[in-house]
Amino acid sequence: MNINHFNLYIMKRYLRMKLLYYTLLFVILASCKDQKGQQDIGIWHFDVTKEYPTKEIYIQDIADVDYIPLETNDSMLWLGREVRYIGEDYIMGASNKTGVYIHDGKGNALHSFNKMGQGPEDYTSLYTAKYNKTNNEIYILDMLAHKYCVYDNKGNFKRNYKTGGKNGLHSIEDFSILNDKLLQYHAHQDYYTLISLDDGAIIKEIKFGTRDVTLSIHENGLIFNTMLYPFIKDEEGCYLSFLASDTTFLLTPEMKVMPAGIRTPSVRDMEVPIFVFPRKNTKDYFIMTKIKKEKGFPSETYILDKKENKFYHLKGGFKNRDYAELPIYLDAVSGDVPSNTAVTVLSPAGLKMALERGILSGKIKDIAVSLKEDDNPVLMIIKFRE
User: Running DSSP on this structure, what letter comes out for residue 234?
Assistant: First the structure.
């Protein structure tokens, strides 16, 4: 083969490879299109050191807001922010002191149960609880015994099993139910496991890197920490974050793990680490919290505007027209809620004080008039518009 033929061969091979590359790229990008009408933003990149422009958003401008006062009676006294499940016709709360209590979708008290004890069908501690609507089961995480106790919604015992197989796995910060599986986050080891809802057998482990970064602060012999909610669930799957990883991942309903976003600089390269956790994924916004590892764990809310594909600093949280001095921080939201919904818990004592100061309006003002300070809380239900 002479030199000209060789060069022509190399050029044709190069063009074929280039055509194949762009064809594959087109296929990948096309496959990444959102299937539920959400904006296609690809993999986002968030610089934790950058001063992003601020944006003021009233929650009522992007969501429909309703308020549900929870009925108060002697057997169902909420102690604080312990919302564990919100559905159209079902509200569940749970706490270690008072057990599990259930209301209908309008806040009317239905029933409660408390199985704290040492018996084979009891739990010794109630760290958190979740409701599985599909099979009408309530899962209670007993952190002291390293097990899950499963009951029906009336409190009848069904089964229990160790948190992740026969030996159990410790330090579970939170868990969520995904179809026929249970996802749990192991705080001390910074990884996730998927286990069977039936017997706790480990189905899959999700690890990225090693746990060489922590959120704990050690000072003068004391350890300071903060509650960590490193993942969110919606109809697209679960968005997972890790303390020691710079990537936020999406766990799809098919149990595939895909990168969703990247933060810079690397958390390992920062003298004072800054962490990024997902908080809510809506049609128009991806909402996240930035937490700095220093005393008090100061946090800030940021949003990715999907239409503009730009980040904004939501200074002071979402504004609230109904309660002028109560900004909405989605990092305060707990429990399993529909993918387009968030919930904030309002204390009666705080509402009574706000009423006296004249800073309430609309439905919440009418509710506050009839409240007593020791009543059960009022739920602020936020439904983001589709």
Answer: E
Question: Mean pLDDT in the chain?
Answer: 83
Give the separation between CA 352 and CA 76, rounded to whole angstroms.
21
Angle at 333 between CA 332 and CA 339, to 5 degrees: 150
- Mean pLDDT (whole number) for 314-325: 90
Q: Which residues contact 222 (CB under 8 A, 6 or more apart)?
A: none
Written as six digits, the tokens of 70 are 């929870």
CB neighbour list of residue 337: distance below 8 Å, 6 or more residues apart: 85, 86, 343
Q: Is the pLDDT of residue 162 over 60?
A: yes
H-run or E-run covering 240: strand 237-240
How far does Cα 234 stand from its chain's mean position?
9
- For tokens 């590359």, name the residue: 21
Q: What is the mean pLDDT of residues 340-347?
A: 89
- Which residue has 């980040």 as its token pair? 311
More confident residue, 186 or 172: 186
Chain mean position to CA 22: 37
